[in-house]
Amino acid sequence: KNDNNDDDSDSPFRSIGSNASSTTSSMLFSGIPSFATLCVRSVAVATITLYVLNQKHMLPMPMGKVVSKLLFWPTIPITISRRIGKWTTVVDNAVV
């Protein structure tokens, strides 16, 4: 064996975060979404599914009441931000 071997790939003292190992791990996990991304997508799909089922009246009445309340409260900040400065609504005599 050559004593002046500059190749340290067999060396037990090579750095753990070397380019070869980080490239290999990034290639292994590049197709797998992260856990956080998976959770966000799952919540989004569940919310959209519940919304559509609720709008089509396909949920049982007790479940529909709960889903309606759960889907209503996150929209309050949107409503308030759009109504800033316009806190009242004018109603004409034709409606009353």
Amount of beta strand = under 5%
End-to-end C-alpha gap: 99 Å
The major beta sheet can be summarized as: none
What is the helix/strand order?
HHHH
Instruction: Indicate the overall shape.
Output: flat
Mean of residue pLDDT values: 78
Q: How many extended strands?
A: 0
Structural notes for this entry:
This protein is an all-alpha fold and 96 residues long. It has four helices and no strands. It has helices at 19-29, 35-55, 61-72, 76-83. α2 (35-55) packs across α3.
Topology of this structure?
Elements: H1 19-29, H2 35-55, H3 61-72, H4 76-83
Write a concise synopsis of the structure shown.
The protein is an all-alpha fold.
Q: What attributes does this structure have?
A:
96 residues; mainly alpha; 0% strand; flat
